[in-house]
Design a protein that fits this description.
Blueprint lengths: L11 E5 L3 E5 L4 E7 L2 E7 L6 E4 L6 E4 L5 E6 L2 E5 L4 E3 L2 E3 L6 E4 L4 E4 L2 E2 L19 E7 L2 E3 L12 E7 L12 H33 L1
Antiparallel strand pairs: 1-2, 3-4, 5-6, 7-8, 9-10, 11-12, 13-15, 14-16
Length: 212
């Protein structure tokens, strides 16, 4: 049936004045559009956003995507394009990519990211390649890249980091700067000078008495 210039019946095999298309021509998809309380059928070459084309022997239909935040889908369980602000990942839509995957902003997709191993233990505290002679130094820990990213534009996380640390030995054994030993020698030298001065003074007094 054809109801003249009414565009609602375009591509229909059968059409109703009130409900639009009831059956569509071959290769076209039947889409049931709703506007408020009213609904009517249309025959389309491709399904609108949020729907996918389901071909059946009886009639091709537009079925709704069942994936949340999906703009267009391949099937009810696989999204091909997500709504604005969402990343596509394995047929689903996410606000942020799952762990182990990185966001490819230009395509709004999640791709395999850079995978790194566990941190090593903190290394020896050192400074200028020395483990003594200073009060403070730096200690470093590292981790290895287990899997390189799928895209060269995706950066890997930090694989080395350092932090300030206090050295166990501030003074190196056998070093030139040994304040405790130097202070002890100074006191001993001063004591010897005092003893020598007292001895010389005693000799002088004894000599003076003999001469009198």
């Amino acid at each position: 049936a054809n109801y003249g210039p009414n565009p609602i019946c375009k591509g229909c095999l059968s059409c109703s004045k009130d409900n639009g298309c009831i059956r569509c021509q071959h290769k076209l998809f039947f889409f049931l559009r709703r506007e408020g309380m009213r609904q009517y059928g249309e025959c389309l070459h491709s399904c609108p956003s949020g729907y996918y084309g389901l071909r059946t022997p009886d009639m091709n239909r537009c079925s709704r995507c069942r994936i949340e935040n999906c703009d267009s889908c391949f099937s009810k369980d696989f999204c091909t394009k997500c709504k604005s602000g969402f990343y596509s990942h394995r047929g689903r839509c996410f606000r942020g990519c799952p762990a182990g995957f990185a966001a490819l902003e230009e395509l709004m997709e999640c791709v395999e990211g850079c995978e790194v191993g566990q941190w090593s233990e903190w290394g020896t505290c050192s400074r200028n390649n020395k483990t003594c002679g200073f009060k403070w130094g730096l200690e470093t820990r590292t981790r290895q890249i287990v899997k390189k990213p799928a895209k060269d534009t995706i950066q890997c996380p930090t694989i080395a980091e350092s932090r300030r640390c206090k050295m166990a030995l501030r003074h190196c054994p056998g070093g030139k700067w040994r304040r405790p030993a130097k202070t002890k020698d100074k006191k001993k030298k001063k004591k010897n000078l005092m003893e020598r001065a007292q001895k010389q003074h005693s000799i002088f007094l004894a000599t003076d008495k003999t001469s009198q």
